[in-house]
Structure to design on (260 residues):
């Protein structure tokens, strides 16, 4: 488990090699390439990776962004621009700690060097990060952008580890000095967000039902569904909650057929 770096259609082998190196520098190991336009094992990539050849060798190549995000429950997309609908752009330091935590599989998505992420690809992000830079020359190279974000993830991990090691010193002393069986039992199950592929299935069902009942029209469905995605992403739904919502959609379909 950990933060997965996802590169959508990377074009430069030098960039991919540099990204592998900085990932290893910052303790990241999962690299996924979506429809890459270069050879990740080329001489150029290996030269830039230096001692991170293993990151390249173990990287995964897939044909689509949904495949790259399979198994993830949280995803942040990087962008240097606003979208057609109001979008909160956050700094890496603010947003990226959200990707960390026990029992979490998460992803940080980067677009290609030439075009970044399209609106359709940005739809897979639950939060959006932009890297503040000088207005004199704001454009960052892909490998540089990954380096900035990887550094912030590593710093956030160090901070969390430090907080955990110093948290509740009185309770730690109590555990050492008292019989553990005499302590009150505290059980708190972590809240696990629904995997992204489960959410995508719900969005497809929702779109179909809303078209069937006339709430959506084909020519406006895409823009409206972007707004629904933003609404549900704010809720951080669990898998059980998504299943409940899909159950409601099934009942709506049944009711529609009954009155026809």
């Amino acid at each position: 488990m950990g933060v997965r770096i996802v590169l959508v259609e990377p074009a430069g082998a030098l960039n991919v090699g540099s990204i592998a190196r900085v990932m290893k520098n910052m303790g990241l190991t999962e690299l996924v390439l979506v429809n890459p336009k270069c050879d990740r094992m080329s001489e150029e990539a290996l030269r830039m990776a230096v001692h991170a050849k293993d990151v390249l060798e173990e990287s995964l190549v897939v044909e689509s962004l949904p495949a790259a995000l399979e198994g993830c429950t949280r995803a942040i997309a990087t962008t240097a621009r606003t979208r057609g609908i109001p979008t909160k752009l956050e700094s890496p330091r603010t947003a990226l700690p959200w990707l960390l935590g026990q029992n979490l599989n998460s992803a940080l998505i980067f677009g290609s060097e030439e075009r970044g992420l399209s609106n359709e690809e940005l739809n897979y992000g639950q939060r959006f990060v932009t890297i503040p830079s000088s207005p004199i020359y704001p454009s960052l190279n892909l490998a540089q952008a990954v380096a900035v974000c990887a550094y912030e993830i590593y710093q956030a991990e160090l901070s969390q580890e430090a907080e955990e090691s110093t948290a509740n010193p009185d309770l730690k002393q109590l555990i050492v000095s008292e019989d553990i069986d005499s302590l009150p039992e505290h059980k708190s199950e972590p809240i696990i967000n629904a995997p992204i592929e489960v959410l995508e299935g719900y969005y497809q069902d929702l779109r179909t039902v809303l078209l069937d009942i006339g709430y959506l029209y084909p020519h406006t469905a895409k823009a409206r569904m972007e707004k629904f995605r933003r609404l549900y992403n704010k809720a951080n739904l669990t898998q059980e909650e998504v299943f409940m919502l899909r159950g409601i959609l099934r009942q709506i379909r049944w009711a529609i057929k009954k009155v026809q």
Remarks:
- The longest helix spans residues 142-166.
- Strands lie at 3-8, 30-34, 60-62, 74-78, 89-90, 106-110, 127-129.
- The chain has two domains: 3-160, 196-259.
